[in-house]
Specification:
The chain is an alpha/beta fold and 330 residues long. 32% of the residues lie in helices and 18% in strands. It is globular and about 60 Å long. Bound molecules: threonylcarbamoyladenylate and magnesium ion. Magnesium ion binds next to loops.
Length: 330
């Protein structure tokens, strides 16, 4: 079929570019990644330059099979194999002790490494064709909203990358869950689609409780995943008041909410977030980018429910508002 052969041609081209040390963006089920050969320090340096990312922020290494863990990590605990069996390929990243051979550019000089097997068929095809691991952060400029379509990547980084492998809109829509297995008790560092409850069902009581207070791990700066508009978090009850204050300030105001307000406000752009939590995650970054396209200056956000993937959506919204991990938001 014509379509299939076009995809194969693109994947072959992408693998050849990676071998030459070029950058290739590709679809994963979470967000688009900006890929480089994980064994090539010169290629890895280009990732940091393209993103404008500080060099001490480590990258996630993408592999195609759990057996490849031992090419990158040592002292791999049983829990890692259990999680890999339960959730890979999928939106889960494991932090493990690194092998000395891992380039410092990947780990930002840390003695640990982040690894994941993505689930998107295009990402897996690329990994298998390339035949080696691909280091890939989200394909956005540092601190900005992660891209969930090829068009988003083109807008952010089009000039610095050789090829974008277009796999359509990302099904999950937010970044992978990160679990740190390099410590005595595994702990979630970044919430995602794979929830604390799902991890607990595999690991039982060895799983530590998530951190409530902001923790300084690389990439956890409080303002992350931010649109250009100032994000103001709200509950349903005080949303109207926050809209009124925002309008009085003479700003171009938007509302991101699963429900329409009872009272209609002139001059407020309504961005509809569905009520289904998986769908909220799927749409979140797309809507935050839409707020940028509409040149909104202030975005009032009604926080979604804290259940399932909603927990991770709330985390990203808190960071978009510059509030880090703090739970006391409103
Ligand atoms: O879903 C995802 O994880 C996407 C796709 C492309 O796979 N990737 C992604 O990469 O979100 P990035 O670079 O935007 O976020 C990776 C996060 C960063 O916060 C980084 O600090 C953290 O992973 N990380 C990487 N290595 C780490 C390590 N050794 N210890 C602690 N955190 C680490
Ligand atoms: Mg990122």
């Amino acid at each position: 079929m014509k379509q299939t052969s076009k995809i194969s041609q693109d994947v072959n081209r992408a693998a050849t570019l990676l071998k030459k040390g070029a950058l290739v963006a590709f679809a994963t089920e979470t967000v688009y990644g900006l890929g480089a050969d994980a064994s090539n320090p010169q290629a890895l340096k280009k990732v940091f330059a393209a993103k404008g990312r500080p060099s001490d922020h480590p990258l996630i290494v993408h592999i195609s099979d759990a057996s490849q863990l031992s090419l990158w990590a040592k002292n791999i605990p049983d829990d890692a194999w259990k999680l890999a069996k339960a959730f890979w390929p999928g939106p889960l990243t494991l932090i493990l002790e690194r092998l000395p051979s891992v380039p410092d550019e990947v780990t930002g000089g840390l003695d640990t490494i982040a690894l994941r097997i993505p689930k998107h068929p295009l990402a897996l095809k690329l990994l298998n064709t390339f035949g080696s691991a691909i280091a890939a952060p989200s394909a956005n400029r540092y601190g900005q909203v992660s891209p969930t379509s090829a068009q988003d990547v083109e807008e952010e980084l089009g000039e610095s990358i050789s090829l974008i492998l277009d796999g359509g809109r990302c099904s999950v829509g937010i970044e992978s869950t990160i679990v740190d297995l390099s410590r005595a008790k595994p702990r979630v560092l970044r919430p995602g689609k794979i929830t604390q409850e799902q991890l607990h069902s595999v690991l039982g009581n060895t799983l530590d409780t998530p951190l409530k207070a902001p923790k300084k791990y690389p990439g956890s700066k409080p303002s992350h995943y931010s649109p250009k508009a100032e994000v103001i978090l709200s509950s349903w009850d005080n949303m109207e008041e926050k809209l009124e204050i925002s309008l009085k300030a003479g700003k171009k105001v938007g509302l991101l909410s699963p429900h329409l307000p009872n009272k209609l406000f002139n001059g407020v752009t309504y961005l509809s977030l569905t009520q289904d939590c998986e769908e909220q995650a799927h749409q979140l970054y797309h809507l935050l980018r839409q707020a940028d396209h509409l040149r909104l200056e202030l975005l009032v956000v009604v926080m979604p429910e804290d259940s399932g993937i909603g927990h991770a959506v709330r985390d990203r919204l808190r960071r978009a508002a510059g509030l880090g991990h703090t739970e006391d938001i409103i």
